[in-house]
Amino acid sequence: ARPKVGYFYVGQEVAPLLADHLYQATVDQLMIPPLLIQQATTIDEAVTQLFMHDVGSLYVVDQQQKLLGVLSRKDLLRATINATNTSTTPVAMIMTRMPNIVTMTEHKTILQAGQRLIAHQVDSLPIVEPDGVTVIGKITKSIIMRYFIEEGLHIQN
Amino acid sequence: ARPKVGYFYVGQEVAPLLADHLYQATVDQLMIPPLLIQQATTIDEAVTQLFMHDVGSLYVVDQQQKLLGVLSRKDLLRATINATNTSTTPVAMIMTRMPNIVTMTEHKTILQAGQRLIAHQVDSLPIVEPDGVTVIGKITKSIIMRYFIEEGLHIQN
User: Fold this and answer.
1) What keywords are assigned to this protein (chains A, B) (predicted)?
2) In chain B, what are the domains?
3) Tens digits of per-residue pLDDT, A106-157?
4) Could you tell me the pTM of the whole model?
5) Cα distance between residue A151 and residue B115, in whole Å
6) Contact A17/B9, CB-based, under 8 Å?
């Protein structure tokens, strides 16, 4: 018969192996392609994109895919409730702009990404090249939660 | 000297001890007080509440605190972009109603709550009494993510 194997607990502390397994996954393993729009896009068009793709945030980039801004559901809700003329106002008027955007690079760990999401109270982080501005991906609270839950199901089964 | 103790890995599988520690936390240990509103509340008032308390969703209850509906940022954004008259329209017109609301009870595990959030693609779960309708708390994707990240920091330090 196949031998039963696993971790054996021998003391009061948890050794790094557990942390390695769950928390050392890196951003590039979990990041998803971001939804990118131009800064001339109207608020109405941005909201339509948000619903069409069922995402929580949009990234605004220039022609070289360099990050100019971030738009969250909250930013869009603030604009629409304030009776901004949403059919003509460009997102450039309401987006959060660089350098006020919190970003991350792809070789950081999930633990570091989660800490940053919590510290800055944001729902997503644009993942950028080492140049700090070229967008290559996106990490969200949802992705990180789903990762831990799926790992948990895997462990239990 | 204090002996070095911990888990020793002796094979290919992960035993239940890890799962117990991280994944067996229960909903009542992590749930937060929900923001409750009445169904006559206008959309404008609901959006104000959302921003004032910086939350992602509101629960609509009757006088007995029984759940009638849920309002997400997405529901409110859909209503405001559609040029609904948000200063007079009550949230009852746009909320997701029982029995179409996914709820949970307080003795379920975080793993079960996370699975339910993923399966139903919602950002939060109202936590209800065993009667299925009396609201006593709220669990969100953010809370679950923060839990796993904080546990990870704890393990590493």
Assistant:
1) CBS domain, DNA-binding, Transcription, Transcription regulation
2) 21-156 (3.10.580.10)
3) 999 999 999 999 999 999 999 999 999 999 999 999 999 999 999 888 876 6
4) 0.85
5) 11
6) yes
